[in-house]
UniProtKB/TrEMBL annotation:
It is found in: Membrane. CDD domains: MFS_MFSD11. Keywords: Glycoprotein, Membrane, Transmembrane, Transmembrane helix. The chain crosses the membrane at residues 7-26, 46-65, 100-118, 138-158, 170-190, 238-256, 276-297, 309-328, 386-404, 410-431. This is UNC93-like protein MFSD11.
Length: 449
């Protein structure tokens, strides 16, 4: 029981640490394009969409080596180092320079790959097949509180403002940098699991071999982790789950960057258009937390497995996409600094916009909690490579989406998500049915997942 209590403590610390870091980073992502639009009349000539495209492009490539890096450094220290780079990226906005902005985008892409691989490794190490669903839900719910706190500040601080001043920008990003550093320090509280071998098994041998053997073993683990990533990439289950993961990457781009920009560009919202970006983030966070709580913490009472949750997620998202299509002007994602006066198929409604934010968050939590759960279940022995592949696919699709967000009208972005989401749901169902069959063969209770 003591060991189980320690594992639950680690999951909570993991979630709280990510909550602080992503309170800063996701708030930064939500307002980056809006802030940069106000900066582009100065010497700064960056693009928030381009920056996020670089981040997710580098992240996807870095996932090829992140399992090896985590194997060498260890998951805890990997997360600490990554958290420092997240803080540096946010700090760039305090006194923006184009070269620093894009350099930091590259560095945080590498750091993100390591961070999320280490997170998956830590989550799996502190879970078993009976607790992976619960722990995934706890982690996801705590993480998504990040959407509440940062955006709540933005909503109240920017209420009634149509232009973001230099003072406003510096105040926000100094605060966000400090918050990110707090989350980084909290990683040190994660307790290491005890070595399960018998007390005298290999101690004398290890003393004789010394540090050279330790270094050689570390390198062997790194090489093995890389080879395992390549092998897992081509398994049937991982290829099928990659379609679902690709959809989460597209949705991540949409709700973390594009949708907030759309809301901030609609002139029909009047003087509230900028503060509504923060309010939208809050509603997304409420949806994420509610989904994490219901589908993670209450997973033990779900006797039907993961498929109904994913089905609910895609239905919720389709409703949100339909309402956004009717409520938001088509040119909102690519509108100039002056915003857009166009109207879609209805007069833009703040209430409908916030409802869609909630639905986007709820649907996203349905997909992500179940993906975390099924990856931890299927690849409990190879968690670092499995989660690296997951982030590789998710981030490369996010990078592609951020790139085309510079050019595509809203209707085409929604259509792409509908098509990928439909096929991603089908492929998830296929893998889940296989997991249920494997559990049945082992005589385990399907509801335990």
């Amino acid at each position: 029981m003591a060991s189980e209590g320690k594992k639950l403590f680690n999951i909570i610390i993991l979630g709280v640490s990510f909550m602080f870091i992503f309170t800063a980073f996701q708030s930064c992502g939500n307002i980056a394009q809006t802030v940069i639009t106000n900066l582009n009349s100065t010497d700064f000539h960056g693009s928030g969409y381009t920056s996020m495209s670089i981040i997710y492009g580098v992240l996807s490539a870095s996932n090829l080596i992140s399992p090896s890096l985590v194997a060498i450094v260890g998951p805890q220290f990997s997360m600490v180092i990554s958290g420092v780079f997240y803080s540096l990226y946010i700090a760039v906005f305090i006194q923006p320079a184009t070269w620093a902005f894009y350099t930091a985008s590259v560095l945080i892409g590498i750091a993100a790959a390591v961070l999320w691989t280490a997170q998956g490794n830590c989550l799996t190490e502190n879970s078993d097949e009976n607790t992976i669903g619960r722990n995934s839900g706890i982690f996801w719910a705590l993480l998504q509180f990040s959407l509440i706190f940062g955006n709540m500040y933005i909503y109240f601080a920017w209420q009634g403002k149509t232009h973001i001043s230099e003072s406003d920008r510096r105040t926000v990003f100094i605060a966000l940098t400090v918050i990110s550093l707090v989350g980084t320090v909290l990683f040190f509280l994660i307790r290491k699991q005890e070595d399960t071998k018998a007390p005298g098994d290999d101690d004398s041998t290890n003393e004789i071999l010394g540090e050279s053997s330790s270094a050689r073993n570390t390198m062997m683990r790194a090489v093995a982790a890389f080879k395992k990533s390549i092998t897992l990439s081509f398994t049937k289950e991982m290829l099928l789950l990659s379609v679902t993961t690709a959809y989460t990457g597209l949705v991540l781009t949409f709700f973390s960057g594009v949708y907030g920009t759309c809301i901030g560009a609609v002139n029909k919202f009047g003087s509230e258009e900028k503060s509504l970006i923060g309010l939208s983030g809050i509603f997304i966070g409420v949806g994420e937390i509610l989904g994490g709580g219901i589908f993670g913490l209450l997973s033990k009472k779900n006797r039907s497995g993961r498929n109904p949750v994913v089905m609910l997620g895609i239905l919720v998202h389709f409703i949100a996409f339909y309402l956004i299509f009717f409520n938001m002007p088509n040119d909102a994602p690519i509108a100039p600094m002056e915003g857009t006066d166009q109207v879609a198929y209805m007069i833009p409604s703040k209430e409908v916009a916030m409802l869609c934010s909630f639905l986007l968050g709820l649907g996203d939590s349905c997909f992500n909690t179940q993906l975390l759960s099924i990856l931890g279940f299927l690849y409990s022995e190879d968690s670092a490579p499995a989660f690296a592949i997951f982030k590789f696919v998710q981030s490369i699709c996010a990078a592609v989406a951020y790139f085309y967000s510079n050019y595509f009208l809203l209707q085409w972005q929604l259509l792409i998500m509908v098509l990928v989401g439909f096929f991603g749901t089908i492929t998830f169902f296929t893998v889940e049915w296989g997991a249920a069959a494997a559990l049945a063969a082992r005589g385990s209770d399907y509801s335990s997942i």
